[in-house]
Amino acid sequence: MRRNILCLLVVTACLGCVPAGAQQTPELNEVVVTATRVDSSVLESPSFVTVITQKDIQESGAADLSGVLAQQSGVVVNGYGPVGQVKTVSIRGSTSSQVLVLVDGIRQNSSFDGFVDLSRIPVDNIDHVEIVQGGASSLWGTGAVGGVINIITKKAAAPSIDLTITNGSYIPHDGYAVTETGSSFAPASAASLFDNQKVTLLLADKVGDVGLTGGGSFTRAANAFIWDDTSSFGGWRQRNNAQDVAEDAYAALDLPLLGGSFSAKGSFDHSLIGVPGSVSIVSSQATQEDTSATGSFGFITNHFFTDLLSFDLKGSYRYAKETYDNPLYPPASDHTTNAATLDLTQKLSLSDAISAVYGGNGSYETADSTNLASRKDRLTLAGFLSLPFSPFQFLTVTPSVRYDFYSDFSGYLSYQLGAVVSLSDMTSLKATLGSAYRVPTLSDLYWYSFDGSYFGDTYYSYGNPNLKPETSYSGEIGLALAGKRLSLEASLFGRLVYDQINWGNYSNTVSQPKVYIETPVNISESFLPGAEVHATANVTDQLSLEADYAFIYSLLLQYLGQSYQLSDDMRVPFVPLHNLSITSRYTNGIHSLRLEVQYVSEKFIDAANTASTSLPGYVVMNAGYKIAATENMVFSLDLMNILNTLYYTQSGYPMPPFSLEMGMQLHL
Fold first, then answer.
1. CA-closest candidate to residue 535, choices 465, 583, 571
2. CA 604, CA 498: separation in Å to the nearest integer?
């Protein structure tokens, strides 16, 4: 069985490429680092990379990073509600823990739970975002199965002060607030017009060669929207206990040092949110408090004793604490993590035709939790080597390999082989084959909790110290085109995943009442072939069109001990077949208009693959308008979910109905 699937994977990766479009005038390509760990252009990178610029972020109207990422090809955001509620991301059908998130090249995924809540990452200090689609463990290690998201923060360019104020509104409507004990009438209120606010202050200055940046934001949101829940509730319903109060602040400096540049940054964020639960199992009093503080530094130079050698060193320390408290079901759950990391990359240019990119990293993480029997820690040491070489002027081949050692787990070897054929100054053909993996988190291995008693039955959750790593083998081939008027990336890909970790409920008694134990096991195997297109056309200097489309024909091969053949045509849970977004932008220097439409097809929530166990597909339309009232003042209006679509990205968690946001930005 595995041999047949591997053969099918290779065939998928070698199908062919999309033909190039009309010839355009070449332009300078964006410089990216995530796919190769050193500076390279989008055309030169063996992996497919999407770059979201600062301008794209500003024009998106998104309140957090998840809104920016949702419009990208192959990226699906799984949200649990409006402002401040948890939002995770999937790339090419991956789980959220199979996406590695970096900030300035520093890992954000913790060893405790593995995923990153994108709602807690502000967009105001982001310079650009690089998204690597496909496995990248050969350079970045665990978690880079579906891809990598690297968030590059701003550096001071000129003295400036930016103040932004926004107000979010919902349409007032009568509804019912639902609690554990029943429902109560919630009349339409003018407070819906002032549901949420955000104030952001950004500062930048240059003192000689030293760049200084800083700032912060404050967010307050009631998130008390009302939606038509006739299908499951029988009428209009209010989302209650979904409030969010959050603050964040940062300060950074960068300066020239020893022929290179040195940077240091400190950040702090805190939030207190209500946790409303799903529409069927509400939690009207549950809250979650998150606090984190991070310090990081970096030094990079292209001349390390010689012009042939570069040097890139990064380090960080992060403290994070999360407390979940539901007074109706004590005790509170408390998790504290600490993580220290050090990462080194060097490039040795051996000749014009061959170079070596190598380095390593080390990290030490600890986790103290009320759901762990004792404090757990994990030491990770890793080394990697990449050898890009050009046997011909038009061809670059890049083999890479990495080995990771874990103090509490077996080591892992990952590899990748990439090739880039330069067809012209603006067109290249790319192909990659490789492996990727994700080690179990400390929660997967050691979790324990008593989840309560319901109707006489009792429920527990236990970790599983016998878990194996999730392993994937992937391949892709496609075309990249970077022109002045047209840019395009199109690819065919396939990923085979073994030993995927799933948490399942199992009854360990026959008589009543029963005892149910939820535990993680390596029970899932899947094959995910598909196609992806990202295209941008600058129709005129003022009008642009952008289209992103991903098609993933996911196939479930094994789940909960049940094996399936390809002919069974079983879909992987939570992976939509189609994901399409189209965005048009117009700007004339004073007025800016944006219209975007996104379509996500139906996705199943378990292996049953029936209509009763699926989330319906949906279409969402957003629009935005900005006017530069003066040289230093901009007013904005964003209309979200114009079609007032009732949709869910996770079962039981409705996304907001039609809303509008008004804002003002002052730039000095």
1. 583
2. 20
The residue range of the domain holding 374 is 2-667
Which residues are CB-neighbours of 245 under 8 A, at least 6 positions away?
A: 219, 220, 221, 271, 272, 273
Among 418, 410, 411, 412, CA closest to 434:
418
Backbone phi, then psi, for 200, in 5-degree steps?
A: -130, 135
- pLDDT > 70? residue 85: yes
Gap between the Cα atoms of 79 and 82, Å rounded: 8
Question: Among positive and negative, which fits the CA dihedral 232, 238, 240, 242?
Answer: positive
Nearest to 236 by CA among 185, 295, 293, 164: 185
Please name which of 45, 46, 37 lies closest in space to residue 434, comparing C-alpha atoms: 46
Q: 407: buried, middle or exposed (CB in 10 Å: 19+, 13-18, 0-12)?
A: exposed
The model's pTM is 0.92
Alpha helices (H) along 236-310 = none
Show the tokens assigned to 235: 């009428």
In one-letter notation, the amino acid at residue 557 is L
Question: The CATH number of the domain where 287 resides is what?
Answer: 2.40.170.20
Q: Rounded to whole angstroms, how far apart are CA atoms 145 and 98?
A: 5
Q: Which helix (H) or strand (E) holds 151?
A: strand 147-153
Residues in the chain: 668
Strand, coil or helix: what is 408?
coil
Q: What's the CA gap between 15 and 26, in Å, rounded?
A: 28
From residue 185, give the alpha-carbon distance in Å to each of 55, 188, 195, 657: 44, 10, 19, 19
How far apart are alpha carbons 667 and 162 in whole angstroms?
5
Per-residue burial over 72-107, b if 16 or more Cβ lie within 10 Å, else e, is bbbbbbbbbbbbbbbbbbbbbbbbbbbbbbbbbbbb
Strands 457-462 and 515-538: parallel
Give whole-number Cα distances, 322 to 113, 332, 370, in Å. 12, 10, 11
C-alpha angle with apex 461: 460 to 466, nearest 5 degrees? 135
Is the peptide bond between 82 and the residue preceding it cis, with omega within 30 degrees of 0? no
For residue 141, is it left (φ>0), alpha (ψ between -120 and 50) or beta? left
For the chain, give the longest Cα–Cα distance: 77
Q: If you average pLDDT over residues 527-538, what whole number do you get?
A: 95
Q: What are phi and psi of 8, to 5 degrees?
A: -65, -35
CB 361 within 8 A of CB 341: yes
Domain count across the chain: 1
pLDDT band with cut points at 50, 70 and 90 for residue 517: confident
Strand partners, 529: 494
Is residue 134 within 8 Å of 48, Cβ to Cβ?
Answer: yes
C-alpha to C-alpha distance for 63 and 634, rounded to whole angstroms: 17
Q: Which two tokens stand for residue 463?
A: 């970790």
pLDDT digits (tens, 9 = 90+) for 351-396: 989 999 999 999 999 999 999 989 999 999 999 999 999 999 999 9
The DSSP code sequence of 472-500 is: EEEEEEEEEEEBSSEEEEEEEEEEEEEEE
Which 8-state DSSP code applies to residue 66?
H
**Three-state SS at 203:** strand
CA 383/CA 536 separation, integer angstroms: 37
Residue 182, SS3 per DSSP = strand
In whole angstroms, give the CA distance from residue 14 to residue 430. Answer: 11
Structure tokens given for 570? 């079983």
Between 607 and 466, residue with greater pLDDT: 466
